[in-house]
Design brief:
With 145 residues, this protein is α+β, with helices and mostly antiparallel strands. A 5-stranded antiparallel sheet has the order 2-3-1-4-5.
Protein backbone atom coordinates (compact mmCIF):
# COMPACT_ATOMS: atom_id res chain seq x y z
CA UNK A 1 0.00 0.00 0.00
CA UNK A 2 1.05 3.57 -0.54
CA UNK A 3 2.32 5.28 2.62
CA UNK A 4 -0.10 8.15 3.36
CA UNK A 5 1.12 8.85 6.89
CA UNK A 6 2.66 12.21 5.91
CA UNK A 7 -0.62 13.45 4.39
CA UNK A 8 -2.91 15.71 6.36
CA UNK A 9 -6.24 14.29 7.46
CA UNK A 10 -8.85 16.31 5.57
CA UNK A 11 -12.49 15.90 4.66
CA UNK A 12 -12.70 13.99 1.39
CA UNK A 13 -15.80 13.38 -0.70
CA UNK A 14 -16.25 11.36 -3.88
CA UNK A 15 -19.30 10.92 -6.09
CA UNK A 16 -19.56 8.16 -8.70
CA UNK A 17 -22.26 7.29 -11.17
CA UNK A 18 -23.27 4.46 -13.46
CA UNK A 19 -26.36 3.10 -15.14
CA UNK A 20 -28.09 -0.12 -15.89
CA UNK A 21 -30.01 -0.28 -19.14
CA UNK A 22 -32.97 -2.61 -19.60
CA UNK A 23 -36.24 -2.88 -21.48
CA UNK A 24 -39.19 -0.74 -20.49
CA UNK A 25 -40.97 -3.93 -19.41
CA UNK A 26 -38.23 -4.76 -16.89
CA UNK A 27 -38.03 -1.16 -15.68
CA UNK A 28 -41.79 -1.15 -15.04
CA UNK A 29 -41.57 -4.48 -13.20
CA UNK A 30 -38.94 -3.06 -10.83
CA UNK A 31 -40.83 0.20 -10.30
CA UNK A 32 -44.07 -1.64 -9.51
CA UNK A 33 -42.26 -3.79 -6.95
CA UNK A 34 -43.25 -7.00 -8.72
CA UNK A 35 -39.81 -8.66 -8.91
CA UNK A 36 -39.87 -12.20 -7.52
CA UNK A 37 -36.75 -11.58 -5.42
CA UNK A 38 -38.36 -8.61 -3.66
CA UNK A 39 -37.46 -4.92 -3.32
CA UNK A 40 -34.86 -4.52 -6.05
CA UNK A 41 -33.95 -0.90 -5.39
CA UNK A 42 -33.84 -1.29 -1.61
CA UNK A 43 -31.59 -4.32 -1.90
CA UNK A 44 -29.35 -2.50 -4.40
CA UNK A 45 -28.95 0.49 -2.07
CA UNK A 46 -27.99 -1.72 0.87
CA UNK A 47 -25.63 -3.81 -1.28
CA UNK A 48 -23.89 -0.65 -2.53
CA UNK A 49 -23.44 0.67 1.00
CA UNK A 50 -22.12 -2.67 2.24
CA UNK A 51 -19.72 -2.93 -0.71
CA UNK A 52 -18.32 0.57 -0.09
CA UNK A 53 -17.53 -0.44 3.49
CA UNK A 54 -15.65 -3.53 2.24
CA UNK A 55 -13.76 -1.92 -0.66
CA UNK A 56 -10.39 -2.54 1.00
CA UNK A 57 -11.23 -6.26 1.07
CA UNK A 58 -12.14 -6.33 -2.62
CA UNK A 59 -9.53 -4.08 -4.27
CA UNK A 60 -5.89 -5.00 -3.64
CA UNK A 61 -3.81 -2.34 -1.85
CA UNK A 62 -6.79 -0.09 -1.00
CA UNK A 63 -6.58 1.45 2.45
CA UNK A 64 -9.32 0.50 4.93
CA UNK A 65 -11.26 3.68 5.65
CA UNK A 66 -13.59 4.70 8.46
CA UNK A 67 -16.30 6.12 6.21
CA UNK A 68 -18.39 8.90 7.72
CA UNK A 69 -21.00 8.75 4.95
CA UNK A 70 -22.03 6.49 2.12
CA UNK A 71 -25.24 7.17 0.25
CA UNK A 72 -26.55 5.29 -2.77
CA UNK A 73 -29.28 6.99 -4.82
CA UNK A 74 -31.08 5.22 -7.63
CA UNK A 75 -33.38 7.00 -10.04
CA UNK A 76 -35.44 5.63 -12.88
CA UNK A 77 -34.74 7.00 -16.35
CA UNK A 78 -37.47 6.21 -18.87
CA UNK A 79 -35.28 7.41 -21.76
CA UNK A 80 -32.55 4.81 -21.17
CA UNK A 81 -34.70 2.87 -20.15
CA UNK A 82 -33.18 1.85 -16.85
CA UNK A 83 -31.70 3.32 -13.71
CA UNK A 84 -29.03 5.90 -12.91
CA UNK A 85 -27.09 4.88 -9.80
CA UNK A 86 -25.10 7.48 -7.83
CA UNK A 87 -22.99 6.97 -4.74
CA UNK A 88 -21.50 9.59 -2.46
CA UNK A 89 -18.75 8.59 -0.04
CA UNK A 90 -17.22 10.79 2.64
CA UNK A 91 -14.34 10.41 5.07
CA UNK A 92 -12.01 12.56 7.14
CA UNK A 93 -8.67 10.97 6.50
CA UNK A 94 -5.39 10.84 4.66
CA UNK A 95 -6.57 9.23 1.44
CA UNK A 96 -9.54 9.64 -0.87
CA UNK A 97 -12.79 7.73 -1.18
CA UNK A 98 -13.06 7.39 -4.95
CA UNK A 99 -12.76 3.61 -4.88
CA UNK A 100 -15.50 3.33 -2.26
CA UNK A 101 -17.93 5.41 -4.35
CA UNK A 102 -17.09 3.47 -7.53
CA UNK A 103 -17.44 0.13 -5.74
CA UNK A 104 -20.83 1.14 -4.32
CA UNK A 105 -22.14 2.01 -7.80
CA UNK A 106 -20.77 -1.19 -9.32
CA UNK A 107 -22.27 -3.48 -6.71
CA UNK A 108 -25.61 -1.65 -6.68
CA UNK A 109 -25.85 -2.12 -10.46
CA UNK A 110 -24.86 -5.78 -10.17
CA UNK A 111 -27.53 -6.29 -7.53
CA UNK A 112 -30.21 -4.84 -9.78
CA UNK A 113 -29.00 -7.16 -12.53
CA UNK A 114 -29.04 -10.18 -10.24
CA UNK A 115 -32.52 -9.52 -8.92
CA UNK A 116 -34.18 -9.32 -12.35
CA UNK A 117 -31.89 -11.40 -14.57
CA UNK A 118 -34.54 -14.12 -14.76
CA UNK A 119 -36.75 -11.60 -16.58
CA UNK A 120 -34.04 -10.05 -18.78
CA UNK A 121 -30.49 -11.30 -19.24
CA UNK A 122 -29.62 -8.65 -21.83
CA UNK A 123 -29.39 -5.75 -19.34
CA UNK A 124 -26.22 -3.67 -19.65
CA UNK A 125 -24.22 -1.97 -16.91
CA UNK A 126 -22.58 1.12 -18.41
CA UNK A 127 -20.67 4.28 -17.77
CA UNK A 128 -19.40 3.73 -14.24
CA UNK A 129 -17.19 6.71 -13.52
CA UNK A 130 -16.10 9.27 -10.95
CA UNK A 131 -18.17 12.44 -11.33
CA UNK A 132 -16.71 14.54 -8.53
CA UNK A 133 -13.97 14.49 -5.91
CA UNK A 134 -13.24 17.06 -3.20
CA UNK A 135 -10.51 17.31 -0.62
CA UNK A 136 -6.92 16.33 -0.29
CA UNK A 137 -3.85 17.69 -2.02
CA UNK A 138 -5.27 17.45 -5.54
CA UNK A 139 -8.28 19.61 -4.66
CA UNK A 140 -11.61 19.61 -6.47
CA UNK A 141 -12.27 17.49 -9.57
CA UNK A 142 -15.48 17.48 -11.56
CA UNK A 143 -15.97 15.27 -14.64
CA UNK A 144 -16.95 16.92 -17.88
CA UNK A 145 -20.51 16.16 -18.97
Amino acid sequence: MVDVSAKAATERIAVAEGRIVMTTKTLDLVLKGDAKKGDVLGAARIAGIMAAKKTHELIPLCHPLALTKIAVDIEADQELPGFIVRATAKVTGQTGVEMEALTAVSVACLTIYDMVKAVERSMRIEGIHLTEKKGGKSGHYRAKE
